[in-house]
Write a structure and sequence with these properties.
Blueprint (H helix, E strand, L loop, with lengths): L1 H15 L4 H7 L8 H36 L9 H21 L5 H11 L6 H25 L3
Helix pairs in contact: 1-3, 2-3, 2-6, 3-5, 3-6, 4-5, 4-6, 5-6
Length: 151
């Protein structure tokens, strides 16, 4: 039972701070060290759960905001430098670009961006989850190397 609670805790942390969880799991063993495969499975499944939840929550929020905006007067959209950068990256890199940076930004942010800009693509969520799985392998490998060299 204690193992299940530890896994649930690491799942929650994988959703919130995905980038750091493999390093903390590798360096903070508690009762025992987590194995390489356990870390990959826990972090990637936690990120997949978070991506699924935030993707669908983002779709729900956008539908609600459209219904609220439809009732109010249409405002002219202001294109800030940040919006221009996001649109430029979306058109140049697409979902593959989001997969590349998904490990560097948090699970909720990547999932909400995916829901916002790629909701029409049925393979967007599976691709995002695949991106988090690949990031999990990369980050866990990096954490394992750091542990081996006592960094």
């Amino acid at each position: 039972m204690a193992y299940l609670f530890k896994v649930l805790w690491w799942w929650f942390l994988s959703i919130v701070k995905f980038l750091f969880v493999p390093f903390v799991m590798m360096s903070n063993p508690g009762d025992k060290y987590w194995t390489f495969v356990e870390i990959i499975l826990i972090t990637s499944s936690g990120a997949a759960l978070g991506a699924f939840l935030f993707f669908h929550f983002g779709e729900f929020l956008m539908q609600k905001s459209k219904s609220v905006q439809g009732q109010s007067a249409q405002k002219k959209r202001v294109f800030t430098p940040m919006r221009r950068t996001i649109i430029r990256l979306k058109t140049r890199l697409g979902i593959k670009g989001l997969m590349l940076i998904s490990g560097l930004i948090s699970v909720p942010v990547a999932s909400l961006l995916c829901a916002r800009y790629f909701k029409h693509d049925k393979s967007a969520l599976p691709k995002l989850i695949l991106g988090f799985f690949l990031w999990s392998i990369f980050l866990t490998s990096l954490a394992y190397i750091f542990r081996l060299i006592n960094f």
